[in-house]
Every structure is written in C-alpha cells, then in structure tokens.
Amino acid sequence: MNNSTLMYTKDVQALTPEDLAQILKMSKATIYRKIRTGDIPAKKIGKDYRIPQTYIYYFQTGLDYDIYEKEKIDADILNKHQNLLKEVRKSK
Q1: How many other β-carbons are positioned within 10 Å of the β-carbon of residue 20?
Q2: Cα–Cα–Cα angle for 21, 25, 27, nearest 5°?
Q3: Full domain range(s) for residue 3
Q4: Are residues 36 and 72 located together in one domain of the fold?
Q5: pLDDT per residue of the chain (92 residues) written in tens, 0 to 9
Q6: Contact 20/7 with Cβ under 8 angstroms?
Q7: Eight-state DSSP code of residue 50
Q8: Which residues does residue 45 pair with via DSSP β-bridges, in sequence order?
Q9: CA distance 75 to 54
Q10: pLDDT at 67
Q11: What is the pLDDT of residue 6?
Q12: 3-state secondary structure of 30
C-alpha cells in the first residue's frame, strides 16, 4: 500500500509497522523500537504487528481520535460565531 492510499483510505483499520514508518517518515527500526517500549500501541497477530489507524491522529495532535474530531467541530463552531459577531458589529 502506498502512502497516498494509506492517508486517504477510511476503511483501513490497522497499519503494519512498515506502513506507519512510511507515513511518519521514520525508519522501520524506530517504529519497532517504539512498539517494544510501548510508545506506539500495537497488537501482535501471529508474527506480525498491527497498529490502529487512529494512532496517526494521536501522533499528529496528541489527542485520541474522538477528541480530535470534537476539537475540529468546536473550532468550526467558534469560527462561525466569530464571523457572525463581525457581521453584527459591522451593522451597528
């Protein structure tokens, strides 16, 4: 799977360490080390590790995905309110 497919495919639920290394532009060795130390959550399935896709959001924002989504909604609402206030102030 290439980087552009991984970033925009919503039905990908888990990534391989190799996929994550490509997305985060880190070495595979770094990803495996972070898995061993617990910095990256991963499940071992047979011989292979799988990392939840939501980890990418956590890595980028420091927030769990559900909190990240709510924060985006809050930012949109705040922006709408600020624009509305500007319009009201202009009309006075």
Answers
A1: 26
A2: 55
A3: 1-61
A4: no
A5: 444 444 444 566 889 999 999 998 999 999 999 999 998 999 999 999 999 888 887 777 777 777 777 888 999 999 999 999 999 999 87
A6: no
A7: E
A8: 48
A9: 20
A10: 76
A11: 47
A12: helix
Domain count for the chain: 2
What CA–CA distances, in Å, run from 36 to 30, 55, 58? 10, 15, 18
Residues found in the chain: 92
pLDDT for the residue 8 = 40
- Locate 14 and state its tokens: 């888990």
Using DSSP's 3-state secondary structure scheme, residue 42 falls into coil
Same domain, yes or no, for 50 and 89?
no
Match 């709510």 to its residue by tokens.
Answer: 70
| Residue 43, domain CATH | 1.10.10
For the record, the structure tokens of 40 come out as 């990256």
